[in-house]
Design goal:
about 210 residues, alpha+beta, eight-stranded mixed sheet, four-stranded mixed sheet, globular
Amino acid sequence: MRLDHLSYAAGPDGLVGTAERLGRVLGRDFTDGGVHPRFGTRNMILPLADNTYLEVVEALDHPASDKAPFGQAVKARSALGGGWLGWVVAVKDISNVEERLGRAAAIGSRHRPDGTELRWRQIGVNGLISDPQLPFFIEWESPAELHPSAGADGTFSLACLEIAGDPQRVSEWLGETVEAPLEDIKVEWVAPHGTPGVIAVQVQTPTGLVRL
């Protein structure tokens, strides 16, 4: 179990505008990730060190975004002005999570602009919707060289997550201590004054630490 990526829902300026705004702050451009046809969403990504990445995601005007939990989550966060949607944990065998949560994982796929298809299975988005401090889980079916973090130059890395929530609650959700997927990343837990969830992300860049 490890931290895989963080999702940021597009704001009023749309997917491209939001990605460009964040990219200017970081000093690095996001790239077009493609469309998630099953979820009615599309994304832009920024590869980071340690097999992690950031994604900016937008709900499309498509029936899938109203039916799929991920599309619903993105649409709801964007309707509030956009911002951090949540964090995602990669597992080697998602069947263990399926058994623990008592339901089946959803099949996910994304076609990159070059035509390459990425495939994975994910579960737990409904948990994130009801309690945004909780991550959802992903098992990649595509080979490691196609992981969205591929191509990272190592000078951009996650340094810290700021999460409003209760680490004990998150540990119960994970089925193991919350430190397990976050062992190399500092986490600052703050008591939620309102909705829990990811408040901010600190990224180490060649020019210093940047807080988004």
